[in-house]
Amino acid sequence: MKLTADGQITIPEHIRQQAGLLPGSELEIRFENGRLWVEKADTDSEMKRQKILQAMQQVEGSATANFDLSTDEVMRLTRGED
Question: Could you tell me the pTM of the whole model?
Answer without folding.
Answer: 0.47
